Amino acid sequence: MSSIAKTLNKVEDRLEKSENCDSVAEGLANAAKASELLSSVWTLPPTQLLRFHHDTKVSDIDGDSTPGFDGNKDDAERFISISSSEIARYQRLMYANGVKGSHRRLLIVLQGMDASGKGGIVRHVFSQGDPMGMHYHGFGAPKGEELDHDYLWRIKRELPNNGWISIFDRSHYEDIVMPRIYKTQPEEMWQARYDEINRFESQLTADGCAIIKIFLVVSKDEQKRHFLSRLDDPTKYWKFDPSDLEARARWDDYMAAWQDVFLRTSTEQAPWYLVPADNRWYSRAVVSELLRNTLKNMNMIWPPLEVDADEMRRQLDTL
């Protein structure tokens, strides 16, 4: 048995014991310890290994690499399953606090080239989450009413409510990258958006909204493999769009544009994480680890009862 498998066994044992604790507080404490043990399967935490630094070059990242994780696909999928159950626990906790007025909430920004696995991450990492408290939105090119407003208008409409998680498949960052590459707007317009977005995200985090920004780094060879699979499989024809090839032809332009985005918008409050994504099981495990720890580190407790329980029981006996 691998060391990762042994650790995951210990995590499951601890989680089972946490369900039989004498108090709610003890149960939460045991769950937190189990989460810390779960994180120990990483040789170094993804927050340290994959966070963007000013000397990081997106073009140098190997999409096929698996930094910090020495296990295989089976290990990763088991990790994701356990981690997902804990994400669901913390999600319910955050939602309950949101109902009672807490401003704690979470925004996840998923970016990456076509076929980098954004949709698969949503399906796998949040597989055990409660739909009540989660909001997914995919952003395409602005159209209709969106064109009548500032570029952040449609973003603000999809932000998480108190206690909720919002997942953005593409985001406001497209409003820098796309006009830069395709020259659809004056340079001074999209250049101003770096600072505007930093102010916008700073205001969000100051008001209790945690932000996780992830760029999935897929190699050109892996992208090509996925494109060919879409052309070979009738059930995937709908996924293929000729415009994907135009973006592929401008690969270097995209990498240069995203490099500047990371340099100018990876902040202490809302850093970017650059995640190798050729191995989908790895990128999903990374996102699960980042998400679970972000929620755990909010250090939330269950909201207290705000009424006299005995009086409520007496009233119930009369109804």
Question: How are the elements arranged and paired?
Answer:
Elements: H1 3-18, H2 24-39, H3 46-49, H4 73-99, E1 105-112, H5 118-125, E2 134-138, H6 153-157, E3 165-169, H7 174-182, H8 187-191, H9 193-206, E4 209-217, H10 220-232, H11 243-249, H12 251-265, E5 272-276, H13 280-296, H14 309-318
Parallel strand pairs: 1-3, 1-4, 2-3, 4-5
Helix pairs in contact: 1-2, 1-4, 4-13, 5-13, 7-12
InterPro entries: P-loop_NTPase (IPR027417), PPK2-rel_1 (IPR022300), PPK2-related (IPR022488)
Domain Polyphosphate kinase-2-related: 84-299
Pfam family, one: PPK2
How large a portion of the residues is in β-strands, by DSSP E?
A: 5-15%
- What CATH architecture label of the largest domain applies? 3-Layer(aba) Sandwich
Outline: globular
Question: Ranges with pLDDT <50 over ≥5 residues?
Answer: none
Number of domains: 2
Kindly report the average pLDDT value: 94
The ordered H/E elements are HHHHEHEHEHHHEHHHEHH
CATH class label of the largest domain: Alpha Beta
CATH superfamily of the largest domain: P-loop containing nucleotide triphosphate hydrolases
What is the CATH topology descriptor of the largest domain? Rossmann fold
Radius of gyration: 21 Å
Strand order, sheet with most strands? 2-3-1-4-5
The helix fraction, in percent, is 40-55%
Total number of helices: 14
What is the terminal separation in angstroms? Answer: 58 Å
Total strands: the figure is 5
Specify the structural class: alpha/beta
Largest sheet: 5 strands, parallel
Protein name: Polyphosphate kinase-2-related domain-containing protein
GO molecular function, one term: phosphotransferase activity, phosphate group as acceptor
Pfam family, one: PPK2
InterPro entries: P-loop_NTPase, PPK2-rel_1, PPK2-related
